[in-house]
Structure prediction request, 255 residues.
Amino acid sequence: MSGPPTNTIALELTNIGKAFGGLLAVDGVSLAMRPGERRAILGPNGAGKTTLFSLISGEQPVTSGRIHLFGHDVTRTSAHRRAALGLARTYQITNLFPRLTALDNCLLAVQALSRTKFHLHRPLTGYAGHFVRARAVLDSVGLAVKEGEQVRNLSHGEQRQLEIALALAGSPRLLLLDEPTAGLSPAESQLMVGLLQRLDPAISILIIEHDMDVAFEVTDRITVLHYGRVVADGLAADVKTNPLVQEIYLGAAEP
Ligand SMILES: Nc1ncnc2c1ncn2[C@@H]1O[C@H](COP(=O)(O)OP(=O)(O)OP(=O)(O)O)[C@@H](O)[C@H]1O
Ligand SMILES: [Mg+2]
Prediction:
């Protein structure tokens, strides 16, 4: 990591690319987010949205370009170090422990992020501070009443809420959410929208979202990807009426 820390830009991508063999999944993407900004990434299937998240989080290395996180050049920094700088993400496919309770899932997330060494023979509830923190993150997504429920018995909507709780465990400053409303009913989506709107406004949120209505409700800026490239970037209202966006994303050109 190098460069002075700054509070003016949370995330800056400069011309980043990712090649899988001959396929350029992400092709020269640049964008900047200020602290507290809420931005959506839209784009058709295979546009490179999830790959972009993996590059930002450090789970995959870029093949070109640079990534700055809160003023630090993290282009070659491990995912673990990026998390320590305040980055957290959720996944398109759930990664919860289905047979553990909601609270134990949160405890594990808190535990994983804490510096305390994990002792296998010590019960999870032995960590008083972790317990308080786990309850707090569960409460922040409205699931306090479900703390003793096994995850497999929660509704799909509640499971997605729990994923947000796990991401909040480390008090992130930048949150990457990969399709948090995927598979949700309209009512469940609305609950998720409310939850996201209530999150600490200081947290920057980058959200991949197929549902345009959700994207417009929780963000003010939109970036549209197509074949790995940014084809539109701007205020939601402007992007919505962009003819190219309507053609490729909304299928306006289809008969
Ligand atoms: N690990 C990988 N190895 C090879 N190709 C990959 C890999 N990951 C993604 N791809 C390819 O990169 C392209 C972008 O995939 P990505 O998952 O980022 O798209 P996406 O925009 O998230 O799509 P969706 O809306 O379906 O989730 C696709 O063509 C995909 O097949
Ligand atoms: Mg994806």
Remarks:
- Residues 49-50, 92 surround magnesium ion (ligand 2) (CB under 6 Å).
